[in-house]
Amino acid sequence: MAGRRLRHGPARSFGRTAIDTVVFIAALAVVLAALKFSGLLSIDEGPVRVIDGDSFWRGESEVRLYGIDAPEYRQTCKDEAGQQWNCGRAAMRALKQLIGGRDVACEIRDTDRYDRLVAVCKSGDVDLNQAMVRQGWAVGFGGYGSAEAEARQARRGIWRGDFERPQTWRRRHETSRSDASGTSLADD
Q1: Hey, what domains does the chain have and what are their CATH numbers?
Q2: Rounded (5°) CA angle 185-92-183
Q3: What is the DSSP letter of 6?
Q4: How many CA atoms within 13 Å lie on the side-chain side of 174?
Q5: Which residues pair with residue 65 across a beta bridge?
Q6: What is the pLDDT of residues 86-132, one digit of tens each?
């Protein structure tokens, strides 16, 4: 065995090394995308700027709360006496109050057609998605059914009178993305 030389295979070509690098980067991108959409990748915790009752800016990212739909900023509802009130602004104030100036941590579930992150978010120990529905400031879809039933039974928030479902209101009013993003709206 002494004096035996180990043979090395042929040197790798530049093309083969480049292909290996591209395959590695693509595989890494697939893994990161899978983590993001599985909810295992989350947005760093930090301060937010509330847009309306179900969305906010977190740094450069616009985040929409998963599984809920709150009245639009300019949407009005009717109270038990039939008087109109701005339930959209009230929902925005409710989300601000739930956050209470604390940092918000989110678990990403998806992105929507407007490239917003769709997430379940917490401020401290408060699950913002569930709390907005339970307090009657949003309707649930795909979950939060018991929280919505509780709000409806107690006539909280939008359930204290008549309202149009936010999705229906948006369709009727053809809300533009610039309105929904909050960029031109005054902060209440």
Answers
A1: 44-181 (2.40.50.90)
A2: 25
A3: P
A4: 0
A5: 119
A6: 999 999 999 999 999 899 999 999 999 999 999 999 999 999 999 99
In 41-56, which positions are buried (b, 16+ CB within 10 angstroms) versus exposed (e)?
A: ebbeeeebebbbbbbb
The answer for residues whose C-beta is within 8 angstroms of residue 88's C-beta and 6 or more apart is: 52, 53, 70, 71, 72, 73, 74, 75, 76
Residues 137 and 160: beta-carbon distance below 8 Å: no
Whole-prediction pTM value?
A: 0.71
Q: Given 3-state DSSP classes, what are the helix, strand and coil percentages for the chain, each rounded to the nearest 5?
A: 40, 25, 40
DSSP result, 41-99 = SEEEEE--EEEETTEEEETTEEEEETTEEPPPTT--EE-TTS-EE-HHHHHHHHHHHHH
Closest CA relative to residue 98, chosen from 73, 47, 132, 134: 132
